[in-house]
Design a protein that fits this description.
Layout lengths: L2 H14 L5 E2 L2 E2 L3 E9 L5 E8 L6 H10 L14 H17 L6 E6 L4 H9 L15 E5 L5 H10 L4 E5 L4 E5 L4 E8 L2 E8 L2 E7 L10
Parallel strand pairs: 3-5, 7-9
Antiparallel strand pairs: 1-2, 3-4, 5-6, 6-8, 7-8, 9-10, 10-11
Helix pairs in contact: 3-5
Length: 218
């Protein structure tokens, strides 16, 4: 099944789950929260409502997220964002606030959707972007959370055991995507930047080729 069909199915499922079903036990509970975003490139600041529960409908929120994450390098090109990415960000917000009581989360968007053309231009400049990055499919976002260290965001994201997580300590941001669970981090081998894969509590001895998130942004 193509990525386009997968996202269409996810979005349709969110719509169907918006139907309120009640029975003898009463109506299912839907929890509501608001995710606060600031796009560092466009200056957009937006609060996006999110509903968590078996009958939650977040289609309107997905439209807002797709616009927020538009490619500012390509005249605002945008595409439908994977609904699972918003769900991961919701759980990441919950995890950060649970781990650090009294703090509220605002996500700063470092990189959202990238058109294939933008991605290729960045690759040619030596940015290390993956050839078929999940950013080009609306399935990844690079973020910061003011008031939290990059390592704190990384640890909270990895604790979810959902999607891929990339840790960029030098640039001060964390990558999250809707791929398989795992984490990549920057190391130096023989004086060159490399990435290794963290999996199941152990460092994978296989040293990845140069460039960020080679193992995760596939």
């Amino acid at each position: 099944m193509s990525m386009k069909l997968v996202k269409a199915f996810k979005r349709a499922s969110m719509g169907l789950m918006g139907v309120v079903l009640c029975g003898a036990a009463g109506c299912a509970s839907v929890k509501q929260d608001t995710l606060d975003f600031h796009n560092l490139h466009t200056g957009d600041k937006v609060k996006i409502p999110y509903k968590a529960g078996p009958f939650a409908n977040n289609n309107a929120s997905m439209d807002k997220l797709s616009h927020l994450m538009r490619d500012h390098y390509s005249n605002g090109a945008q595409r439908e964002i994977d609904p699972e990415l918003l769900e991961i960000l919701y759980h990441l917000k919950q995890a950060l606030e649970a781990r650090h009581p009294g703090r509220s989360v605002r996500f700063e968007v470092v990189s959202g959707y990238r058109s294939p053309d933008t991605n290729e231009k960045m690759r040619k400049r030596g940015g290390g972007q993956a050839d078929d990055s999940r950013h080009t499919h609306g399935q990844a976002i690079d973020i910061r959370a003011p008031g939290f260290t990059t390592a704190q965001v990384r640890d909270a994201a990895f604790s979810l055991q959902r999607g891929g997580v990339g840790y960029y300590p030098g640039s001060g941001f964390v990558h999250v995507d809707t791929g398989y669970p795992g984490i990549g981090t920057q190391v130096h081998v023989d004086g060159k930047q490399r990435w290794v894969r963290y999996w199941g509590g152990n460092w994978n001895p296989y040293v990845m080729p140069s460039g960020p998130l080679v193992a995760l942004s596939y």
